[in-house]
Amino acid sequence: MTILVPYMTTSKNTLFQFDILDKEANARAGLFHTPHGDIPTPVFAPVGTQATVKSITPLQLEEIGASLVLSNTYHLYLRPGSETVDKMGGLHRFMNWHNPILTDSGGFQVFSLSKTRKVSDEGVVFKSHIDGSEHQITPETSIQIQEELGADIIMAFDECAPADNRAYIEIAMHRTHTWARRCQEVKQRNDQALFGIVQGGIFEDLRTKSAEFISSLDFPGNAIGGLSVGESKDDMHQMIKAVNKVLPENKPRYLMGVGSPQDLILAIKEGIDIFDCVLPTRLARHNAALTRDGHKLNLMNAQYAMEDCPIVSDCTCYTCQNFSRAYIRHLIVAKEMLASTLLSIHNIHTLVTLMNNARQAIMAGNFQQFSEEILGDSPS
Questions:
Q1: Are residues 273 and 283 in the same domain?
Q2: Partner of 380 at 20 to 30 A CA spacing, among 85, 149, 192, 342?
Q3: Domain-located, residue 345
Q4: 230: which DSSP letter?
Q5: Catalytic choice (104, 152, 158, 263)
Q6: What is the pLDDT of residue 108?
């Protein structure tokens, strides 16, 4: 049965609407409409930290089938500067990617600079990792930067605290809630969807409280932050379940920074719609190819030197259709740049295709069987 649950913003902005086309248990297949095109969900977004997905051209991303790309507010603020990007016509024109873009708030990167930043209720003062210069990002400046960058989906500024320090996590959670309101108050562009972020570490009561508060602010979409930062897989999945019991059904749910095939499928089963992660390109830079069940092949290994077959026999990506394991290993040994490109194409294609297949399975009513096939052989 097809279920349509349209979302209309309280500002009567019809640019962003989320249609749930079908469901199987908690898993959903949908469409999130944006000014730069529709995003079929569930969806995996490759990460283009500095307005580029490492070693991949926008044309190659389109050929792979990517429909959404993430860029990083912190890095683009420092270099080349959001004002520069704005003057160049915004991120879409600057990086020649004319499909939807999501920018994070800069929060995770700022808070990872634990030795060079100071947090207060006002915002965060930090030192640039590039030249040591001092900067401050507040909820207001984060929104200003993201409005200058011009992404379709932008994120509220949040504090990503260590996962198991309950006392500090509770402080950071309340600060995140205050900052979310401040982000809403200063946002001006109607052609951008601002998502709120749920925090709360690995404590179910805090996650539930945070999800209730963020839901009450009526964002056009909601994200789950502060996971995949060192906690156990069981803790992560339990927090996803707890949060999704609270987040509104008729708005997209975004799990930040998660990208292994097993985690993607488990999260889809709980109702997550959007994912991003550096995993596919990072693995490629370390000579590894990803399979759809989560196994990794280190093509630097000598065993592949004479293997005249594709990385994965039934893979339809450009790499597997045209090159052998032996050739890719040769490129790695010879330190040729093409190795990273070919492996990145394969790895991103693997996750994009996994999402497309999951979506088709939900709409066909056999997602449970599909998920069992993926998870059955997945590494723990």
A1: no
A2: 342
A3: yes
A4: S
A5: 104
A6: 79
Q: Decide if 111 contacts 117 (C-beta within 8 A).
A: yes
358 lies in which domain range?
279-367
Element (DSSP H or E) covering residue 134: strand 134-137
* Residue 270 shares a structural domain with residue 291: no
Note if 276 is an active site residue. Answer: yes
More confident residue, 160 or 2: 160
Residue 104 is a catalytic residue: yes
Question: Distance (Å, rounded) from C-alpha 230 to C-alpha 138?
Answer: 26
**CB proximity list for 308: less than 8 A, separation 6 or greater:** 324, 325, 326
Angle subtended at Cα 42 by Cα 70 and Cα 356, rounded to the nearest 5 degrees: 100
Q: Check whether residue 28 and residue 68 sit in a common domain.
A: yes
**What spatial distance separates the first Cα and last Cα of the chain, rounded to whole Å?**
34
pTM above 0.90, yes or no: yes
Decide if 10 is inside a domain.
no
- For residues 55 and 75, give the distance between their C-alpha atoms in angstroms, rounded to a whole number: 17
In the DSSP assignment, the letter for residue 116 is: S
